[in-house]
Amino acid sequence: MPVTGSCHCGAVAYTLDEEMPTGAMACNCSICQRRGYLLHFTTPEAVIIEAADDAMTDYSFGRGVIRHQFCRTCGCAPVGGGTGPDGKEVIVINLRCTDGIDLDALQIQHYDGAGA
Fold it and tell me: Looking at domain 3-111, which of 3.40.50.300, 2.170.150.70, 2.70.70.10, 2.50.20.10 is its CATH number?
């Protein structure tokens, strides 16, 4: 069953063609810690992003390998993207924006992005 989610105002939505994730990554880098992301990484083929061309903007910092994308209207960040450690394109889903997910049931993997 597809997994869906969106930003607060609905201008950016996604459909993930996977089962509901049971785990997430919590990174402690400066932006992830401030935004409280719970991240799920997947391939571009597994995600359909529905948004007008001008609905999102992005922010990159450091090595610039991750695009922290967010809605221009409400500021929520349901999806992002970038280059994975293997050099392939990756889509990042913020599970806090996922419909019907039990965040308390997720197995959380902590990543030391502040020290990376």
Answer: 2.170.150.70
Separation CA 92–CA 67 (nearest Å): 9
d(CA 105, CA 98) in angstroms, rounded, equals 14
pLDDT in tens, the chain (116 residues): 789 999 999 999 999 999 999 999 999 999 999 999 999 999 999 999 999 989 999 988 877 778 889 999 999 999 999 888 898 999 999 999 999 999 999 999 999 988 87
Nearest to 66 by CA among 99, 1, 104, 113: 113
Which residues, 6 or more positions from 85, have their beta carbon under 8 angstroms from its beta carbon? none
Quote the CA–CA distance of 4 and 10 in Å, as a whole number.
12
Q: How many helices (H) and strands (E) in the chain? A: 1, 10
* Global pTM value: 0.92
